[in-house]
Design a protein that fits this description.
Order of helices and strands: EEEHHHHEHEHEHEHEHEHHEHEEEE
CATH class of one domain: Alpha Beta
Shape: globular
Structural class: alpha/beta
Distance between the termini: 25 Å
Number of strands: 14
Mean pLDDT: 92
CATH superfamily of one domain: Enolase-like C-terminal domain
């Protein structure tokens, strides 16, 4: 069996979208203020920046979008087609795949996946290593593993070690910071559907001053009022805080007993993560924006995170993620991949290092993560807070969805 062709296509959504509300999640850009010399008042829903007269905080998440996705199809000479995907900078990822990665895998045996992975990683190392290049490598690797599973009529998790769980516990992850009453209603709805774990986002960070602190605490308290303390609550910053602000916030959050606080500072501030992870009883999580085995070793060596949250379509695919799982197991640090999605579920099912998964229901296109469910068919639907992977669906278990094709511009 040899790889005959590689096709990368960018799917640009042109259908209906729901605008995200302002401050639905803090963000690294929040610290970069908007210079508004002609505006005396901040935009609606944006808190003024204390100590900065006339300045307003950048509420970047209100316009945050990634409404496109790259799909990779690799075909072998015996007609098997494997599917991979990449969501980071899709047009750039496609160019990397077309110009640099495809020549490295054409004509090769997909079963030599480690060799192919090393070829891609080392050939692009001088200018790649992390970010979009690693995400592009991930897409190729995912398609290769899809081929391997299909070639032996086995799901990918069976190739990785098999079933380690009867089914996968999942946490509901779409509690964006919105109207307090709406958040409470949403939490109640999904608690009634059997979920026992929930993740919410902080809407405010350092640029929003003490009023933002109060808003953050008010939202956490409101969710706890609904779900109680018998259910898990995770809290996400999405890199929207800095070290000083996080050091002030974490002690205030202890009484709410969060299972973790996620990405409190930018991903490069490993020492900041390490300091915070030793500061309070609240575990610090991260890794969604880490891209290499070596990077995760640094995080673990420094005890910078208590939960690892890679995404398989960013860290180099299944070939790399499988190694990260083994590394985390050796450090006794749990792996809970970012975003759910089938490429992550197979890793979670096949290792005891991963106790559960993130989960989003299919909903209207808003930020962009939702596009996965409009492009691919086969994603499991949660029942009573669990998802199940079939023993009888070979490969990743995904096919291309045709229902929404007319809602995309397809490039390539």
């Amino acid at each position: 069996m040899k790889i005959k062709s590689v096709r990368a296509r960018v799917f640009e959504w042109k259908g209906k979208t729901v605008p995200p509300q302002g401050n639905f999640c803090s963000n690294a850009m929040d610290l970069v203020y908007v210079q508004s010399p002609h505006a005396s008042l901040p935009p609606e829903g944006v808190l003024p920046v204390l100590g900065r007269p006339g300045g307003v905080a950048t509420e970047s998440m209100s316009t945050f979008r990634f409404h496109s996705w790259t799909v990779v199809e690799i075909e072998t000479d015996d007609g098997i087609i494997g599917l991979g995907n990449v969501a980071l900078a899709p047009a750039i990822a496609k160019a990397i795949i077309d110009q640099y990665l495809t020549p490295l895998v054409l004509g090769q045996d997909p079963w030599d996946y480690e060799y192919l992975w090393q070829r891609m990683y080392r050939a692009t190392h001088a200018w790649g290593r992390k970010g979009v290049t690693m995400a592009a490598i991930s897409a190729i690797d995912l398609a290769i593993w899809d081929i391997l599973g299909k070639s032996v009529n086995k799901p990918v998790f069976k190739l990785l070690g098999g079933r380690t769980k009867e089914k996968i516990p999942v946490y509901y992850s779409k509690l964006y910071r919105t109207d307090i009453r709406a958040m409470q209603d949403e939490a109640q709805k999904y608690m009634d559907e059997g979920f026992t774990m929930f993740k919410s986002r902080f809407g405010y960070g350092p640029a929003h001053g003490t009023k933002g602190v109060a808003e953050n605490l008010k939202a956490v308290e409101a969710i706890r009022e609904v779900i109680g303390y018998d259910n898990d609550l995770m809290l996400e910053c999405y890199m929207g805080w800095n070290l000083e602000y996080a050091k002030r916030m974490l002690p205030k959050l202890e009484k709410f007993q969060p299972r973790w606080v996620e990405e409190p500072v930018i991903a490069d501030d490993i020492d900041g993560y390490a300091e915070l992870n030793q500061l309070t009883s609240i575990p610090i999580s991260g890794g969604e924006h880490e891209f290499s085995l070596y990077g995760f070793k640094q995080l673990l060596d420094k005890k910078a995170v208590s939960v690892v949250q890679y995404d398989t379509n960013r860290v180099g695919g299944i070939t790399a993620a499988h190694k990260i799982n083994a590394l985390c197991e050796a450090y006794s640090v749990p792996v809970i991949p970012h975003a759910g999605q089938m490429h992550n579920y197979h890793l979670t099912m096949s290792t005891l290092a991963s106790p559960m998964s993130e989960y989003f229901p299919m909903f209207d296109v808003e930020v962009g993560n939702e596009l996965f469910y409009y492009i691919f068919e086969g994603e499991p639907v949660a029942e009573n807070g669990f998802i199940q992977l079939s023993d009888n669906k070979p490969g990743l278990g995904l096919t291309m969805k045709t229902e929404f094709l007319d809602q995309f511009n397809i490039i390539g």
